[in-house]
Amino acid sequence: MPITLDQLNAAPLAEAAQMLDGLYEHSPWIAEAALQQRPFASLAALKHAMVRVLNEAGVEPQLALIRAHPELAGKAMVSKALTAESTNEQTKAGLTHCTPEEFAHIQRLNADYNAKHGFPFILAVRGPRGTGLTKAEIIATFQRRLHNPVDFERAECLRNIHRIAEIRLNDKFGFEPVLGNAVWDWHEDLARHTDPGCAELGQLTVTYLTDAHRACAAQLQRQMLALGFDEAHIDAVGNVVGRYHGNSPGAPSLLTGSHYDTVRNGGQYDGRLGIFVPMACVQQLKLAGRRLPFAIEVVGFAEEEGQRYKATFLGSGALTGHFNPAWLDQQDADGVTMRAAMQHAGLPATLEAIGSLRRDPAKYLGFVEVHIEQGPVLNELDLPLGIVTSINASVRYLGEVIGMASHAGTTPMDRRRDAACAVAELALYAEQRAAADGDSVATIGMLQVPNGSINVVPGRCSYSLDLRAPSDAQRDALAEDVLAKLGDICSRRGVRHTLEETMRAAAAPSAPAWQARWEAAAAALGVPLHRLPSGAGHDAMKLHEVMPQAMLFVRGQNSGISHNPLESSTSDDMDLCVRAFAHLLGQLAAEHPN
Ligand SMILES: [Zn+2]
To answer: How far is the CA of 201 from the centre of ligand 1 (A)?
Structure first.
């Protein structure tokens, strides 16, 4: 019989500790300490209480816990000395059926990892969906993580231990993240479509209006109708628009969604999570035969990443009336204009049709978007959800410093006018200045000495500068300081410079009432509240120009890596996200009775 949360909350301490036995390998003290905080409102709250106990225990108990784990496919497995939980996990991952070569390979990795880090490699082998990673995935992860710094790996092992405990806890409580599993599987299914040449390499690339892109749109449309949307169509720029009607014809709409295109060799959750999560909510409403006092409009935006054409936010921009007519004549790398690509896709490719996509904000309550975080913050804090306070303001420059190219052997250090050293000094200043803000970022991502030589003092240095901060004022102050420093550096070094501003985007702070709804949803799920700005741009930035918006972030695995095939998120976290979204719908329904 599975345990219930009520039983756990009501049981005497010793009995409750017995219920949680085996969650953390040979370390019952973690669950025992967490039980002091009963009653728990949810499994998520219990999980987080145990995370906090371990985080606050300090390094030595953490290392002891890591060392209490068996090696993967190690001696304990071979001699059948594993705990029941570990045997189950290693068997599910196929580690008990390794070929002699695989077995030898894993033993080598075990030895190398232990020698470098001083503790065994820990991986939640049941993976993000709970059904088990493949042996190939396990070995690839092992090889990759071997090279991480020791401190990072200690934290990564602990995160994996928490994931192992989460799955074991689910098993004990007979809990299955049904909605999260469905959403997770939909991502897998959609990721079958990838641009030519990418499938062979196992890469996901879906750029604007390619065959794979159109297949994604068609699949999303079919799926929306199958789940119970009243309407779903593909619009004049390729957005997939699904509507679930409200309980009266004149009801306003809630707008939500995200993008289904990807970067080259990207991850499968970036953007798509924000389409599938509301789709799961509509499915639940349909199954319950429930109508809300507002319609739900879910949009799978056709283009956000600006990969095939330089037209970032094309999909969401069409809804706000910001489609640039010049884009139609833009050519991709093969010389295909956007107009031709649209016609090939069966779209009208006229400005009239595109212009008609513009939404009347008066008909909408607002816009919400869920997205994977694409950063390490939630992963490091062991939190499944984060509340976005603002999408950061940004400004970008392309610059060049011009000094004097001269002989590297004969020019004394005090007579040089080295352009590259000037930019290097600027890079270090920008790094330190942004760090001083705490939440600003500054990046010199391109730095080149054109026609440089090993024996020549750099006479020119070209570079890019990308500055971002949660508010326009903070970004402007950062930019002002960095540009003032650039002037100082150049005059002191006797060099001159040029600088061109190439992009400027205003911050998109979350609308307070909408941010509060996400916060109430997280609180209702027993998930600790964490607020954070978004360092990346999102479709919500475009909708922000015409209606109130707020975003919810979901934790990414692997330090939240994104725009990378290692991008990953668990079905447990997705499950919480679906329930948070449903909670937000419930709040809105209560606020708009009719
Ligand atoms: Zn995205």
So the answer is: 22
For residue 330 the two structure tokens come to: 């833009």
What element of type H or E holds 549?
A: strand 549-554
Across-strand partners of 317?
none
Question: Rounded to the nearest whole angstrom, what is the distance from the C-alpha of residue 428 to the centroid of ligand 1?
Answer: 29
Cα of 19 from ligand 1 centre, angstroms: 41
Is the Cα torsion angle 189, 191, 194, 198 positive or negative in sign? negative
* Rounded alpha-carbon distances, angstroms, from residue 25 to 85, 170, 176, 382: 9, 16, 22, 19
Spatial distance between the Cα atoms of 152 and 522, rounded to a whole number of angstroms: 28
Residue 47 CA to residue 49 CA, distance in Å, equals 5
Q: CB–CB of 336/519 below 8 Å?
A: no
pLDDT single digits (tens) 420-459: 999 999 999 999 999 999 989 999 999 999 999 999 999 9
Rounded to two decimals, the pTM is 0.91
Closest CA to 261 of 238, 235, 279: 238
CA of 371 to the centre of ligand 1 (A): 7
Name residue, tokens 């507002």. Answer: 294
Name the residue among 131, 115, 59, 125 with its Cα closest to residue 95: 125
3 state DSSP class of 466: strand
